[in-house]
Write a structure and sequence with these properties.
InterPro entries: CDP-diacylglyc_Pase (IPR003763), HIT-like_sf (IPR036265). With 224 residues, this protein is α+β, with helices and mostly antiparallel strands. The chain has 4 helices and 9 strands; from the N terminus they run H-E-E-E-H-E-E-H-E-E-H-E-E.
């Protein structure tokens, strides 16, 4: 289980992880960069950012409070770091699955740190102009993107910075207006070549997606 690979009392206790960080020394905001594959399996495109406290998933209430952990920004800093980050030039993607039955394998929050599929990138770039320029346009800005299982519909927002609380933004701009649950949502963030960051949300229950969405972001990733 993922939790077994990151639970410990101090950074020196962690085994089998790429890195362990306790921002400002605060244990409740710590995270580990965990191998997505079993220890000993080499794969430079398959990592997980995992909190060092028990967090079930995207639906955890502390992710949307006034002083939340910054897990997506932490993951982005890892992408941009050297020499620990993804290989230079990687078309990176950060994603989290919904809590729907079957959408995720483990009830321990984990953000995938990987790379985008080439077909997904090509289709995304073609519809980039349809992404909302600000979070208030996120819900209305629908795009169709190629995934491993065919074309699927996403809501797209072009964020200017990675320091947003993306969980809180998702809750305020998508979940509450649609009257769905955070546990239904999947979220993926990747670079916009023209500047900023594409933030894609999708699900299987939102009435605006006509059941053409996804509750799992694995089909957008190329883990190699």
């Amino acid at each position: 289980m993922i939790w077994d690979g990151v639970k410990a009392a101090s950074p020196s206790d962690f085994k089998g992880n790429v890195d362990v960080v306790f921002p400002t020394g605060e244990p409740s905001r710590g995270y580990a960069l965990h191998n997505g594959k079993p220890v000993g399996t080499a794969n430079p495109y398959d990592f997980l950012l995992v909190p060092t406290i028990r967090e079930t998933g995207i639906e955890c209430s502390n992710l949307v409070n006034d002083n939340p952990p910054e897990y997506f920004n932490d993951a982005y800093n890892y992408v941009a770091s050297a020499p620990k980050g993804l290989p230079k030039g990687t078309d990176w993607a950060l994603g989290i699955e919904s809590g729907d039955p079957g959408a995720r394998s483990f009830n321990q929050l984990h953000i995938h740190v990987s790379r985008l599929r080439t077909d997904t990138r090509n289709s995304l770039n073609k519809v980039a102009k349809s992404c909302g320029a600000n979070e208030s346009q996120w819900l209305q800005s629908k795009i169709v993107v190629n995934t491993e299982r065919g074309d699927r519909t996403f809501r797209c927002w072009n964020a200017g910075v990675m320091t947003h609380n993306f969980f809180g933004k998702l809750n305020d701009n998508i979940v509450k207006p649609l009257k769905v649950s955070m546990s239904n949502e999947s979220l993926l963030i990747t670079a916009n070549p023209a500047g900023g960051f594409f933030v894609l949300s999708s699900d299987h229950v939102g009435p605006d997606l006509n059941k053409h969405g996804v509750n799992n972001i694995e089909g957008l990733l190329n883990k190699g």
